[in-house]
Specification:
Length: 328
């Protein structure tokens, strides 16, 4: 078996699958004012096509799967997809990133299907501010969904929070308290530049170091190891069940340890979240699939993986439509 190793010696064992580019929210840092041109349903990969690719990828060392979107729970067949991936023996871990609005409705079905872990995007604990950030969301739906997931005993639940100055930086200690009260790990993420976030971006950006300083002033943070696939650096709050993490794609790149590749909902393999290059595998999956051809395309995508991302605020920004389709 030929293992997926890129030209910089990084072993690729983690696949993120965006199952849709549709979303039931319109977050201020994600959806542009002009809207997003969504892929038509016929252009999206079917369950059969996704599973066919996962089997090929798993035969070459992919062991961890993260299902993303858009909002993955908008796909009616999402639980069936989870179940099919779970049946692939060499896949050791399957998780999902969701905005949490529909978790209460689908949590039980997803748990039965074999989903092990949940990452829930939540940028405010204030209902009015949450509505302002998401446009269509109701905070209570996410919080009741988290409660339901905890009741069902998912092996791990994490909350992802993008911190933006003058919007939710003042809530950072509220999120730390939320972690100490629930035992759920909260991960603070640096605000990333996209074509929808350029106005005043520099004034809105908060580095992971500043976030950590604010948290450490109120709590004595202790470094901790937390199971998972992500690049977060974790800390525990002594005397509590609280755990917080910091993800710093701008201030402190973690590219040297990157072990992932991404599959978009319309069949593109993307080797880096911030690249403008991809390998189209949809046609190969739809005509058979031809396993040898799909394998060749997979290795071609790995070969194109850059040493590090080129996310530079001054002259290059992540394309928002790609961000929606790649799944962050």
């Amino acid at each position: 078996m030929k293992i997926l190793i890129d030209k910089y010696g990084r072993k690729i064992d983690y696949l993120r699958i965006s199952v849709t580019d549709r979303c039931n929210l319109s977050c201020i840092y994600c959806i542009p004012k002009c809207g997003v041109l969504q892929a038509i349903e016929e252009e999206m990969l079917s369950i059969k096509e996704i599973v066919s690719f996962v089997k090929v990828a798993a035969s070459h060392g992919i062991r961890k799967i993260k299902i993303t979107g858009g909002e993955p729970l908008l796909r009616k067949d999402i639980a069936a997809l989870v179940s099919c991936i779970t049946e692939i023996d060499s896949i050791m871990d399957i998780s999902m990133t969701t905005n949490g609005v529909l978790i209460k409705k689908f949590a039980s079905e997803l748990k039965r299907a074999g989903l092990k872990r949940l990452n829930i995007s939540l940028d405010s604990l204030c209902s009015d501010k949450y509505k302002e950030i998401t446009k269509y969301g109701e905070l209570k739906d996410v919080l009741t969904g988290i409660e339901r997931a905890m009741e069902l005993g998912f092996s791990q639940i994490k909350v992802n929070t993008v911190i933006i100055r003058d919007i939710n930086l003042d809530e950072i200690l509220d999120f730390v308290h939320f972690s100490t009260e629930t035992g759920i790990a909260v991960r603070f993420i640096e605000y990333m530049p996209t074509k929808n976030s350029l106005d005043g971006y520099a004034k809105k950006f908060v580095s992971a170091d500043e976030m950590r300083f604010l948290c450490n002033e109120a709590y004595s943070l202790l470094p901790a190891a937390v199971d998972g696939n992500g690049p977060a650096k974790y800390y525990v709050i002594p005397g509590t069940n609280g755990t917080i993490g910091f993800i710093s794609p701008l201030s402190c790149k973690f590219c040297s340890d990157c072990n992932r590749i991404r599959l978009t909902s319309d069949g593109r393999l993307v080797s880096c979240l911030y690249t403008q290059e991809w390998v189209d595998i949809k046609n190969s999956l739809r005509k058979g699939p031809d396993i040898d051809e799909v394998t060749e395309l997979l290795f071609s995508a790995i070969a194109s993986k850059p040493a590090s991302h080129s996310l530079i605020v001054e002259d290059r920004q992540m394309d928002f439509c790609s961000m929606m389709r790649i799944g962050g």
